Amino acid sequence: MSVIDIHTHYVPRGWPDLGALAGGADWPSLRIESERDAMIMVGSKEFRRIGSDCWDAEVRLKDMAADGIDIQVVSPTPVFFSYGRPGPEALKVSRVFNDLALEICSPAPGRLLPFAQVPLQDPEAACRELDRCLAAGHVGVEIGNHVGDQDLDSAGVVMFLQHCADVGAPVFIHPWDMANSPRLDRWMAQWLTGMPAETHLSILAMILGGVFDKVPDTLRVCFAHGGGSFAFWLGRMENAWHGRSDVIATSEFPPSHYLDRFSVDSVVFAPEPLRLLVDTLGSDRVMVGSDYPYPLGERPAGAVVQRAEFLDADAKAAVLGGNARRFLNLGAAR
Length: 334
Description:
Elements: E1 4-10, H1 18-22, E2 28-32, E3 37-42, E4 45-51, H2 57-67, E5 71-76, H3 87-105, E6 112-116, H4 123-136, E7 140-144, H5 155-167, E8 171-174, H6 189-208, H7 211-214, E9 221-223, H8 230-243, H9 245-248, E10 263-265, H10 271-281, E11 286-287, H11 303-306, H12 313-328
Parallel strand pairs: 1-5, 5-6, 6-7, 7-8, 8-9, 9-10, 10-11
Antiparallel strand pairs: 2-3, 3-4
Helix pairs in contact: 3-4, 4-5
Enzyme class: lyase
Family: Belongs to the metallo-dependent hydrolases superfamily. ACMSD family.
EC number: 4.1.1.45
């Protein structure tokens, strides 16, 4: 039985000067502090301290062995999405990081599976870059849950998702660029409340915005962080759809109709919320995710699934790896 971690991130150990490459200012850069430590900078501001587990395949593989993980999906860190930049600039940056992702994963083909990033603010360029990446060895794409004030039901994003369905590319949707205010500056509140809320909102946009009515059911999409607060508030959404259809019933069917159209990862850290996910979506719609290697992720990866006594053997096998194998369209040889 293979165990697949659908939610991990990478950061290369350096990249070209993005300002010189694409133009503009205040791009991310990396301040190397030692062989094992670095600081992501955004312009002159410190963004996040990282370690060699972000870029070193050998370190990753050792951690995977310790956690019993056979395969990692390795996705971009969202700070590099660049959705607020002009499309041509974001395309150049996407190409840089997509090529570096292949280098990071190259020591362990079949075990480290790279997901691409695309300039989602330019849907046509995003489709072209996805095609280039799939041909080069990426197995899917990670996108942010919004582009500025445009949610996932905007025409451009729907066009891109349609293309993903057409070419068979799985899509991992990750929250990013959370709302900020003085009330959210304490206790990492942006991450503790903003990320779940953003993820919930992105699922809401795809359901109530009619995205699942517009794209074929061959689209494979997974939401990070357990789908945020969606499972807990599904009843509230259902009640609103039936009770205030004059306001929100833009989808063809009520929210519960679409539960078999998407998956979520298992980064909820306790058996009780995991059980809610399984009870709400089904054991075939939850996959192991860890948010490795970041400190708010789960270590050992998959621990909450491994100790979930309410999962029988078949359900546990599905959550640990079977569902991800189907999501990634991995053949038996892989």
